[in-house]
Amino acid sequence: MAIASLALFLTAATTSVVPPPVQQHLTRWTPGPVRCGGTVIDPVRLVRSRPELAWGEVPLKTTTLRFRIDASGRPLSIKREGGNEFIPLGSDLIPAFTASQFASGSPRNDCAIDYSLELTPLATADRADLMAYSLDPSSGPLPPEGWDRITPPDTDCRRRPHPADLLRAFPDFDKLPGTPGERQWSMTGYDLDKKGRPIHVRTVAGTGDAALDTAARKAVAKSRFVAGARTGCMYPYWRGPLRVAAPPAPPEEAFGPTPHCPTAPWVQQPRLIYPPAWNRRSIEGWAVVQFDVAPWGEVGNTRVLASEPSEDFGREAMQVVRTARRAPSTTGASGCIERIRFAIRPPGAAVGTDVPPPPPVVIE
Q1: Which strands make up the sheet holding 184-192, listed edge to edge?
Q2: Domain 24-135, architecture per CATH
Q3: What is the C-alpha radius of gyration for the chain, rounded to an integer number of angstroms?
Q4: Are 78 and 98 in contact (CB under 8 A)?
Q5: What pLDDT is stored for residue 168 in this prediction?
Q6: Are 308 and 339 in contact (CB under 8 A)?
């Protein structure tokens, strides 16, 4: 009896429990109606945030953005309820909404929009959302089950060796209209005949930019590949977002004099870092930051006096100022004010000239 009990104990002790595999999801923030002073307002263009990948359990979250609409129909003074509370998978939420547009000529205040985070298993996720993620895999490469969902079931174009391209044609992107703050993309499907020429060229998915879809189909039709018939091939083309200029900043005198902050040089220059989520959408902004300086030159007691188009630029501006250090003094300083401008560097600005491109972050 003792031997049997010992054998049972050893069996139980050496049996390992294999945890279930961690399921991956594709996440999207789904917007609710826009309300201004209790009235529902229809946007002219509501830009959705990028899809992202999530591993395991992610608490379903809802969040609310509050903002105003200026006379041009642009959402400004955007703030998230909860302030600095971390929103998982939400780095692109406010930048995407900032690129949205409302009807011009009707400025409004006290506006709000609710968002809810939705998770979908990769096996049932929307193919267009998976394609969009594959073009900008911000939270890791798309897993094989995602590619299996994207790929047509009857394709042999993924069979190795993949059909090598002899000539890959591209649209003339400079002649295509862009969209402020939003990248446009088009996934073009095609088959190959025995000579490696594209046939049955069609638009599979995209952002709905008709000009880009047409140009993408023409580019694929002009491309050439090694000989060999294939079916279900796909290729993406995309055009980057147009720059969204920062709204006008108030003059420096709007924030009053600074009698207790004598002019002093920076002995440690600020780290000028553009917030990545806003840079990806080519959205500019500014912030006015007030701070004090200790006698040994350290910056502290930073606070945001104003920022546009979102409070995010105020938080980023405070981080910029905190990385700096002024020259030591006997008394230090208080109530110092700096205006920080986040500007998108024009592409190719320094090519062929002796003038360097402007810095992406400027302290004025």
Answers
A1: 198-206, 184-192, 230-239
A2: 2-Layer Sandwich (3.30)
A3: 27
A4: yes
A5: 95
A6: no
The confidence score (pLDDT) of residue 55 equals 83
Distances (CA, A) of 153 to 25, 188, 227: 21, 16, 23
CA distance 197 to 226: 9
Under DSSP, the state recorded for 301 is E
* 24-135 matches 154-239 in fold: yes
Whether the Cβ atoms of residue 235 and residue 219 lie closer than 8 Å to each other: no
Residues 6+ apart with CB under 8 A from 97: 46, 47, 49, 65, 67, 75, 78, 113
Q: What helix, strand, coil percent values describe the chain, rounded to 5?
A: 20, 35, 45
Residue ranges per structural domain of the chain:
24-135, 154-239, 252-363
pLDDT at 353: 36
Architecture per CATH, 154-239? 2-Layer Sandwich (3.30)
Strands 325-326 and 75-80: unpaired
Q: What is the sign, positive or negative, of the torsion defined by CA atoms of 270, 275, 281, 287?
A: negative
Kindly report the CA angle at 159 between 156 and 160, in degrees rounded to 5? 155
- pLDDT for 347: 57
Cβ neighbours, 10 Å, residue 265: 7
Work out the burial of residue 87: count CB atoms within 10 Å of its CB; fewer than 13 is exposed, 13-18 middle, 19 or more buried. Answer: middle
Helix (H, G, I), strand (E, B) or coil at 136: coil
Instruction: Give me the pLDDT at residue 352, please.
Output: 35
First to last CA, the chain: 86
Q: Which two tokens mark 8?
A: 């049972």
Architecture of the domain whose range is 252-363: 2-Layer Sandwich (3.30)
235 residue type, one letter:
Y
What parts of the chain have a pLDDT lower than 50?
A: 1-15, 348-358
pTM for the whole structure = 0.86
